[in-house]
Structures are given as structure tokens and as C-alpha cells.
Amino acid sequence: MTPPPEHRRAPAAVVLGRTADAIAAATLDEEGAELARTEVAASELSAWVAGVEQMSSPRWVWNDAPRWYGTLLADGVRVARCHDLRLCHAILRDSALVAESAAVRRDARWDAAPHAAEESSAPALFELDDTQSSVGPPGDLDEALAELTRQREAIAGSADPARLRLLLAAESAGALLAEELRAAGVPWDAREHDRILAETLGERPPSGGKPAKLVAAGDRVRAALGDPGASLDSQPKLLRSLHRVGVMVESTSRWELAEQEHPVVAPLLEYKRLSRLLSANGWTWLDEWVSEGRFRPVYVPGGVVTGRWASSGGGALQLPRQLREAVRADPGWKLVVADVAQLEPRVLAAMSSDAALAAAARGRDLYAGIVDSGAVGTRQDAKIAILGAMYGATTGQSGRLVPRLRRAYPRAMGLVDDAARTGEDGGVVSTWLGRTSPPPSGAWSAAQSHATEAEASGADETRARRWARDRGRFTRNFVVQGTAAEWALAWLADLRGRLWALPTVDADHAAPRSGPVFGSRAHLAFYLHDEVIVHTPAELADAAARAVTDAAAAAGRLLFGDFPVDFRLDVRVSDTALKD
DNA sequence: GGCGAGCGCGCG
DNA sequence: AAAGCGCGCGCTCGCC
């Protein structure tokens, strides 16, 4: 079928790059052939992108999403699709699906770290001449076009182009979403945060000193140690103080202290709890990271080798449960808080086609299903056994339970056991969609080969074996954690589209602090591995909750087709992100 | 005074 | 109880 001419001329993709004083854009057709080239003044870029987006909704191709999209969003421009060259390069470079000879593997300039996230208020972004910048991947149009060509060739020549396309689309959607999450921010009630701090630590001290309850806890510890001058914040000193009063621990970690019977233990654990809250998420954090009712963390898509996101600054991925009450919808808005129950074992069931494990998970708590199958006796045992199987536990209760799972779910356990063996042998493993683990380091390989030589000492052999097992546990977990991250990206990408399709609200119901794009509509506000928070006008909360659930089902089908595994969500509509 | 390592602990 | 995976960050301390 021949499409009408006007459709053929509509660009399938637009590649953006920079010149010394403007933006250069190339429009491409479906096959990647260049249709036209345009120059746009930097100050006009957002308006130009908005127009093209409305007309043809192309896939925007750029070197690095943070470099482009933050400013577009600040200008009120949202795009539907992109291809993030930096992120896709990293995947293709390492993927076992890609031919060894592929040119994309050999251009180290695209191995660059991401650009630091721009302040959304930075007006000079598009004025900067960063074509010569030493930070981030190459910035000019011809470089971007050349890299895109290399990537298209690598995909087309790969062992599974369809999977890779899915992975790269999901990764790129994540790149968009990371900027959107930052633009919208987590709705944060600073007064509630302050109330929690004051209740736990005592009132905020005027000049950055220690709050009263922390001081009091410290005094109780020093009294129990019989040493008014004891230093509690220095691990070596604290350890010596504990030894002096007969608490013979090897570390000062919480779990080891908790095993001890001594009057110092309770106040010390309390002191540690308060001290942690103050230093990690106290008033200093609040001042630095929350403004105008929003926490705007910096997400780093693909920041973890497995494909999980990392974060940079603000500790976005470590928000303590204690502070969830400070996550609070704007007036007239609601939060939809949803997390996946037992994501990783469900993913493992699907990727290994383990029908028995999938059946245990279907329509219920997966751990309860394992108990019902008779493999283990209690829910707690099931949880410990599953975690042990995915992490490679060999000792303790977990190590004892894993063999029972191996009998009950041989396909699932076979998959992770194979991944571990491959890693121990120095090989690489891949996720369901083709993200591949890094090869072993030079030191690792040298240690392994040295251990087989005649002059190797027993210590050499012991060390080599330990490193091999360490790597086996890493590759064992890589396939599951990485595939779970792919499922989560598919979930997010689908949800992002569903939320965008919901109606917008009138200006008098808007949440302007979520920015010009998202202030008038339900939007994603937070994402953490297997959990999302949607901030939505109250009247759309039910629709948003349905979108979250429907997106999870769609993600399961997209990755695993008809394989009968379900991804159960706990979904709550509430004013706060508090978990029960 | 800057920098990296080690510790400990928050999250999944 | 932690064990077995993946992170980021604040703190101290030794080194330069």
C-alpha cells in the first residue's frame, strides 16, 4: 500500500543537534533517510518543537534527554516519544544480541556520563555553545545522525531486532519520564515534614545545633557507658567504648547491637535512629530539596548496570517510610499510590516459563501460593527462600530453604542457577529484552587464570573461588532485577500515555506548582523500582487508578505475551503516600 | 583543605 | 535475626 504523499513527507523522526549559535534539526522518514534540514533559533526551539509535535508527533532523537527536555517542559512542551542516543548507545554497546563487529561498539565518545540536570529556570540553556563541550555525549547534528545510523545498523543486524527495539523504546520513554518527574515534582508538605521532625527529634534548634531529643538520647548512651565524654558519631571510638563496658561486638551495626543484653543498647539504637533522620532527611535536607511544595529529585535512568534507575542528590530512592506522611496531594487533588507485589519472582516465573511458579502467583500473594503448593510451610519461609534463590544465599535459613524451591520450581530455579554458573565461569548474561551484564574486570580474569597455574598458593585459589562466587551471585540477580526493571519501564511508558489521555482540568482546579505541562492533568510524581505515585485531580483519581492497573496488565502482555502470569498491584487512593 | 575508603543505614 | 542482590549519602578518618 502506498501512503498518500503528505503522509510520506511527515517526518517519522526529528534529530536535534546544535550549531555554534542555533539548533539544527533533520527530519527523517521511516527508513532513516533524511527529508529536510532546518535551523531554528535557540529561543524559538520550544515553540518550534511544540508545532512539529502537534502536527506529526515524531520520535525526537537527541544526544541526551536532560540536555533538551527539561527546558522544553519548563516552556510547557511535552513530547510523546524520543530516542535517547546516549542511553541506547550504552545498551547496544554491551548487548549480547548485537554483532561483535557492529560499529556502535567502537565509539567511546558516546560512553559519556549524562549531562547534569539543568535547573528548570536556567534560561541560558539553549544559548550555550556546547558543541565543544567536554561534558556529555557529542552535541552536533552530524554526530547525532552518524550515531543514529550506527545504532539502526546494529539493531537491524542483531539477533533479535524486535526485542532490542522494545528495550530501546522503553529506555527512551524512561528518559522522558525522568525529566517529567523532576518537572512535576513530588508534592511535599514541608509543614508536615517539620512536624514529624519536631515530634521525633524535638523542635528545630535555632542555629543548626542538635535537637533536644537527640541530645537526650546521647546523654542516656553516655550514662550507660559511664563516660560523659564518649564520642557516638565515630565508629572506632564508639566500638572501643562498647568494649570497655563489656559489649563485645565486632561492629556497631544495628543488628549486632540488638543481639546484646546491655543497658546501653536501647538508648544507642534510639540515638542512631534519631541521628540518621536528622542527617539524612532533617531540616537541612528540607531547606535544600523542598521548595514551593515540591521535592524535585534528579533521576538517573539506566544509572544501575541492571537497568534500574539511580538518583543523584536528594536521596530520592531512599525516602524513609517515616516521611511518607509529608508526601501530600495539593488541595482538591489525590495521590494514587501503587506498588507491585513480589515483582521479581513474578518476572522470574514469566521469563523462565515456569507454569508452577506462575500458578502460585496468580490472583494472590505469591508467597501464600508457594505455601499452598506445599513447597514450604509458612509465608515467611517462602519469602526467605525466594529472596535467597534470587540473591544466591548459601547459608543460614535461606540457604536451607532454597533446595525445596529447586524441587518445586525447577524451571525458574534453573534459570537463575544457570545465570550464576555463567557468571562464575566469566561469561555474560542478558535480561529478557537483551540488556547484557558487563564482562568481568581484568583483575577478576587474572585472578581466575592465575589460580589454575602451578605456582598459585592456596590463598590465591581461595580468593579466586570467592570472587567467582561473588560474580555468580551478581549475574544470578542481574537477569531477574534487570528484567524486572524492563517490566517497570514498560509499565511506566504505558501509564504515561494513559494519563496523558485523561481530560485536563480547569485553571481553578489546577496545581500550578506541578509546572505548565502537568499542573492541569493527572501525572506521575514518583517512581521507585516497583512503585509509582500519581498526583491527580480528585475527580480523576478513579480513572488514574484504573490507568495504573491497566498499564500493569499491558506491560505484562508486551513483555511476556500470553504467558499466564499476573502482576498484582496494591493500589491506594489517598491524600498522603503513607503505607498502612 | 581536598579526596577516597570504610562504615552504617535508608530504599527496592 | 541476617543471609544473598542492587543502589546513594552522611559521617569520620587517614592520607596527601
TrEMBL record:
Record's keyword annotation contains Ubl conjugation: no
Gene3D superfamilies xref list: 3.30.70.370, 5' to 3' exonuclease, C-terminal subdomain (1.10.150.20)
Keyword Nuclease: yes
InterPro entries assigned: DNA-dir_DNA_pol_A_palm_dom (IPR001098), DNA/RNA_pol_sf (IPR043502), DNA_polymerase_A (IPR002298)
Keywords on record: DNA replication, Exonuclease, Hydrolase, Nuclease
Domain DNA-directed DNA polymerase family A palm: 320-540
GO terms of molecular function: exonuclease activity
Coiled coil region boundaries: none
Disordered: annotated span: 121-141, 438-464
Catalytic function, reaction form: DNA(n) + a 2'-deoxyribonucleoside 5'-triphosphate = DNA(n+1) + diphosphate
SMART domains, sorted: POLAc
Superkingdom, natural source: Bacteria
EC number: 2.7.7.7
A Pfam short name: DNA_pol_A
PANTHER family: DNA POLYMERASE I (PTHR10133), DNA POLYMERASE NU (PTHR10133:SF27)
UniProt xrefs under NCBIfam families: PRK14975.1-1
Protein name: DNA-directed DNA polymerase
Organism expressing this protein natively: Microbacterium insulae
